[in-house]
Amino acid sequence: MKGGIKTGMIDPQIWRALAGILVFLGLWYLLTSVLALPRFKLIPDPVTVFKEWVSFEPVSGRSLFTREYYMDMAYSVARTLVAFVLATILGVSLGLFMGWNRTLFDFTFPLVELMRPMPPLSWIPLAVLILPGVELAVIYVTFIAAFFATVLNTLLGVFSIDRNYFLAAKCLGSKPRDIFFNVVVPGSLPFIFTGLQIAMGVSWMSLVAGEIISGQRGLGYAIYEGYSLFQYPQVVCYMFTLGILGYISSAGIRAVGRKLMAWEAGRRGV
Questions:
Q1: Cystine design at 203: which of 70, 122, 146, 269 (Cβ 3.0–4.6 Å)?
Q2: Could you tell me the sign of the dihedral formed by the alpha carbons of 123, 92, 77, 238, in that order?
Q3: How does pLDDT run across 199-227, given as a tens digit for each residue?
Q4: Is pLDDT of 62 > 80?
């Protein structure tokens, strides 16, 4: 009886999430449409943005029912995925080996720490000069931002493993290769997936900056174009599009992490 009632109820977390969204939309409408404060006069209200987003004949030429909207989305998603996959493969590998091999750590860590604080935008001039075409430059800038976040979190994951696991594995006769794949890699997974979520977030942020400066298509380029042409509803529509895509991609990473780390949830009693 109780179980049936519980399964039929909506999770309170969903209600709280909906309440937060409604409060945000209410404040937005109040500041832009009702009070019309001086600094908010040019910002479109949520009703105007929604109408433009779902219009069959949008003023900006881009909406849910136009081909251009999905073309911009496809360009940005493709660039982000390429950069993120490269950052995952190279960043996780480097982080694991840096944590596993002290010599490699001493050799690479100062360089990583020197380059990591550099803003992704500072890489754009060099990327444009070195790489052929604009497309590779945008992908490279996106990759750089995700790469360092992945390396650092993976490295911290290796350092977080209890040293007793290594001693126990050696006492049982495990070879270094076995310890690496059976202790280091699984023990680092919680930190790795945390790093991947961070990397995905900074990938989207860096992508938009790269597209604004060097891109010719994509969500970031469309945001800058809308701003230049005073089409502010388009700017806000694309901002929310980026937020939705970022949320979906991060949720996907979390879902994969839960599948691969069921043992971690059991250990924590979740």
A1: 146
A2: negative
A3: 999 999 889 888 887 667 899 999 999 99
A4: yes
Q: Which of 233, 189, 210 shows the shortest CA–CA distance to 46?
A: 233
Six-digit token string for 9: 């109820």
Unique residue bearing structure tokens 């995952």: 88
Percentage of residues in the chain with pLDDT exceeding 70? 93
**How many angstroms separate the CA atoms of 179 and 200, rounded?**
29
Specify the pLDDT at position 211.
Answer: 87
Please give the single-letter amino acid code of residue 213. Answer: I
Tell which residue, 207, 202, 157, 209, has the closest CA to residue 183: 157
Q: Which residue has the tokens 């992490």?
A: 257
> Do 55 and 65 touch, CB atoms closer than 8 A?
yes
Between CA 88 and CA 105 the distance in angstroms is 19
| 151 close to 112: Cβ distance less than 8 angstroms | yes
CB-CB contact of 194 with 217 (8 Å) = no
pLDDT band with cut points at 50, 70 and 90 for residue 1: very low
Q: What is the DSSP letter of 119?
A: -
